[in-house]
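Sample intake sheet
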Amino acid sequence: MTNNIFDENCSYCAEGALLDAFGIKIGELPMSKVILFKEQSHRGRVIVACKRHVDDISDLSKEERIQYMEDVSHVASIIHELFKPDKINFGAYGDTMHHLHFHLVPKYKDGFEWGGVFAMNPQKTLLSDEEYAELIEMIREKL
């Protein structure tokens, strides 16, 4: 069980180069950081990472857990509004990344991996800096 507030070796805590390897921070909500996942095979895919460095949702207090799930739900609503997916897959793994975070993966019936489990990082669709900036601004405006 990890109850630290911050871990300098964690990409979600330290941000910078560790986070840049796979994501771009969009902004913050009361209990979370919202990150655009650079691999965009699923247009609009984001990560909602807890602000506290905890390993599991059960490490949060009841109030923190409620707020964190409110943040996740709020971001999901934004993804539905902006990208109109047929479904959002929610993934909360953390076998190797011991920091509570959810992947919100928009799925489209006529799109990549419909009907199956999403690949963690398929490395199929990377965007230009301008395309990332456009997606980030769209989402940031709704946060």
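Comment: DSSP finds four helices and five strands in the chain. The first strand starts at residue 23 and ends at 29.
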